[in-house]
Amino acid sequence: MLRDGSTVEVRRVSTTDEDALVAFLDGLSSESLHLRFFSAGISLRAMARRMISIGDEHGVGLIATTGADGRIIAHSMFALNSAGRAEVGCAVADDHHALGLATLMLGQLAEMAPVAVSRSSRPWCSPRTTG
């Protein structure tokens, strides 16, 4: 449940989510894209494919959906690199900012992350990122 009382479904991302992820990314503002990917000039299709290619062995991706149509309103993920460090990221639809969704998603990721990842990770958050 989010701060406004609405509910979302959080689940693992799957290969069938590619088009919905492209639509989600396309709906993000330039600022939100830049905060998540450090660039607003990304290939949305290529990024959606990357989001669904993270498997259980190297990380996990989650999406949050809402409504009868199952619209994706958030994506979070962690992925291990070759040094055993984890990249952790989260993007939330602009119309769902400040509802606690990123906190919810990152909390679920933390529960799923291997202990080795949580011990070796050094979190960094853009100072412009807001709840």
Provide a descriptive summary of the structure in words.
The model has no long low-confidence stretch (mean pLDDT 82). This protein has a single domain, classed as Aminopeptidase (3-Layer(aba) Sandwich), CATH 3.40.630.30. The chain is globular and about 40 Å long. The protein has helices at residues 18-27, 30-37, 44-53, 101-112, 115-120; strands at residues 9-12, 59-66, 71-80, 86-92. It has a four-stranded antiparallel sheet with strand order 1-2-3-4, with helices on both faces. With 131 residues, the chain is of the alpha+beta class. It starts with 8 loop residues before the first strand and ends in an 11-residue tail after the last helix.
Secondary-structure map with pairings?
Elements: E1 9-12, H1 18-27, H2 30-37, H3 44-53, E2 59-66, E3 71-80, E4 86-92, H4 101-112, H5 115-120
Antiparallel strand pairs: 1-2, 2-3, 3-4
In short:
With 131 residues, the protein is of the alpha+beta class.
SSE succession: EHHHEEEHH
Rg, Å, rounded: 14 Å
CATH superfamily: Gcn5-related N-acetyltransferase (GNAT)
Taking the alpha carbons of the first and last residues, their distance comes to: 15 Å
Number of domains: 1
Which structural class fits the helix and strand makeup? alpha+beta
Major β-sheet strand ordering: 1-2-3-4
Q: What is the percent of helical residues? A: 25-40%
CATH T-level fold name:
Aminopeptidase
CATH architecture: 3-Layer(aba) Sandwich
- Major β-sheet profile: 4 strands, antiparallel
Per DSSP, the total helix count is 5
* β-strand amount: 15-25%
Mean pLDDT: 82
Overall body shape: globular
Which residues form runs of ≥5 with pLDDT under 50?
Answer: none
CATH class: Alpha Beta
Total beta strand runs: 4
